[in-house]
Structure formats: structure tokens, C-alpha cells
Amino acid sequence: MTTASSPATPTAVDRVLAGDVRVAARLMRDIDDRTAASRAALKALHPHTGRAYIVGITGNPGAGKSTVVDALIAHYRAAGDKVGVVAVDPTSPFSGGAILGDRIRMQRHFTDDGVFIRSLATRGHLGGLSRSTFDVVAVLDAMGYQRILVETVGVGQDEVEVMKAAHTSVVVTVPGLGDDIQAIKAGILEIADVLVVNKADREGADRTERDLMHMLDLRAAGERKDVEIIRTIANRGLGNGSGIAELAQAIERHREVAWTGEGGATRATLRAAAQVAELVRGLLADRVEAALAARGGLRDVAAEVVARTTDPWSLAEAVVGTL
Fold it and tell me: Which fold has domain 50-261?
């Protein structure tokens, strides 16, 4: 005897699209573990992405990036936008997980259903961005978060990778860290779409802004020269004189260029190219790891080099040849 089939049970992808936070969190964990199932889910979610506006927040350690992010969350929530946050943190040498707690820094938003905060450990990945950043952003995008803030680890010179994932890159500087043009020496000024002088109530804010303006004047004419400098005192939140509303307005002005302006399509292609390149590198790295494991592991392979039974170049070629 047959019975009428019951409605199909919602899949994990369906539940993510419906905004199921618990399922999304499990998927993000699987993404970080690079499981085959998570990759299949990402493929299914891709047609539902492309609606969120992504803002990268980077800068030197101690500049107050997390405080700026916290205030921006409050600003966007007051406007009724859902906000996703990806906080890329250093990796614990003991657990392999993120050592900075997003819930410590932004815990006032923890109970807000319109905010989703996810920490990712860099796991040794250079550039301040985890291998999983693009993928976690895609999940948040598919879930309907209109604003996604990506806060990087703040390691300095390799932070340029933040621009690959973001529509708008915000570089946060601060006076009084012992170097008037710290952002330039860190190699991150060139990626800025908006520059922020945070803790602007400190002595030296005027000089820091002048130095940044001087460095911008040295740029060649063109889009990268037209960068707004905004002063903030982010620890005031949305209070009077915090500068957060002005920062959000500067981001919106850049959005008109980056998303709907003439160069919007070109920028979108460059972001997609960066994502594909990152995925290719990641998949190749996984295959290399498997190939080394098949030979007994990296230490056994290295022992052959130490024993002079082979050379490192030949070994590297042999491993790559098995891919």
C-alpha cells in the first residue's frame, strides 16, 4: 500500500536561506574545516548571493578597529539593516582557534537577532584574512544580511588582501603610536577607499591627518587619489562627536562608485577573480598536504633531504607531479 509523499524535509541550504542561525553556524564551522559537504552547500548558495555590501576594516593593532566596527553595527542596526560581521583573529598556538573573542568585544550585540558575528582564525594565512573569509561572507550574504563588515587581524604589511573581499576598504589609523605615518609604513595606505583617524580627541590628530593628506597628494591622479579622511572617536558609539555617522556617509559615497558607478562591473570581476584564485590556491594546498601525507608526512620527506638521498627541488617536483 502506498501513501502520498510528505513534503520534502528542508535541506541545510533551505534553512540557511530562511535565516536559520544555528544551521548557518554549523555550515561555517564545516567551511573552516573544509568539508566536501560545505563546498556543495556553497555551490547551492551562490545564486542567492550578490546582494550584501561588504566593508573591510583594517589597520594597525591598537587603532581601535573593533570599536569602530562595534559602532558601525549600532549605526546600521538603527537604520534597520541586518549586519553580519566576520572578525579574522590570530590563531591560538594551542587550540588552533581564534584567540580574540568577538563576544567580548561586541557582546552588546550578541542578543540582537539582526546581527551575526563570526570569528575566524587565520591558521597561519598571511594577509589578515582566513582562507574561509570569502565563503563565510557568501553564507551571510545568502542569509540576507545587507551589511557585512570584515575586520582583519591587523598584522600590517600583508593587510592588502582585505581589498579583495570588500567593496569598500576602510583603513583605521590613530595618533600617538610613535609613528606619524604609521599606515604608510605598514603598507596599507594604498588599499584605502576611506581613511579613518580614530581616537581623534588625542593630541596629534591634526598632524596625523595632515600626513595622510600629504601622502595622498603623492599618488598619481585617479580614483585611488580620491580618498576621504574621517575623524572618529569610536568609543563614544553613536554619541555626539563620535564621527561614526560621517564614516557611514563616506562609505555610502564610495558605494556609489564601487557598486553602482562606472567601475562597478570591473570591481565585481576583480573580486570574483580574487575569490577563484584563493580557492584554487586552497584546493592545491589541500592536495599537496595529502600528497605529502602519502609519502609519510613532511618530516619524513624532509629527512630524505637532510640525509642527502635527494634534493628539495626534486622532492618538490615529485610531490607536485602527483597532483
Answer: Rossmann fold (3.40.50)
